[in-house]
Amino acid sequence: MPKYASADPQLHACARELIAAFFAKHSKPVPQFTEVSVTRQSKHIDVLCVLDSAYAIVIEDKTHTEAHSNQLAKYLTDINGRGYQLENILAIYFKTGDQSCYKAIYQHGFQPFLRSDVLALLETGTETSNVIFHDYFDWLVTRSRA
């Protein structure tokens, strides 16, 4: 949110880049927004990011597992039922582990955001002094070398 930009400008810029990357994965322009709401485990959706009460970014976070039990379709049905316009729903399959095939992910309208995508994005924010950011970045770098 803009009001937090001065607390850690580098982290704020990186967060805005992450949102922009999610829109880019769906080939959509990033809208102007001023309010961001982030909820974890909203009806089993790992992360739900809502921009200005109009755009819903559904994030399914997978590391060493894969989608199962038709969960992706259920999440999008749930979000659509909450009144979001279909064109304003972005489904992201946040995958930091390895997976051989993403065909089913695409079929459900999700776009993979892979470890390489995350690392490229996080490299833009390494000037931040945020310890959690650096721990996560270091963990991903170590995993990509393994």
Query: How many structural domains does the protein architecture include?
Result: 1
- Please report the total strand number as a whole number: 5
Q: DSSP helix count?
A: 5
Please indicate the percent range of residues in DSSP E strands (runs of 2 or more): 15-25%
Pattern of helices and strands: HEEEHEHEHH
Q: What is the CA-CA span between the terminal residues?
A: 35 Å
Which strands sit side by side, in order, in the main sheet? 1-2-3-4-5
CATH architecture: 3-Layer(aba) Sandwich
Helix content: 25-40%
**Largest sheet, if any?**
5 strands, mixed
Pairing-aware structural class of the strands and helices? alpha/beta
Radius of gyration, taken over Cα atoms and rounded to an integer in Å: 15 Å
Whole-number average pLDDT?
A: 90
Uncertain parts = none
State the shape: globular
**Which CATH top level class fits?**
Alpha Beta
Find the CATH topology.
Trna Endonuclease, Chain: A, domain 1
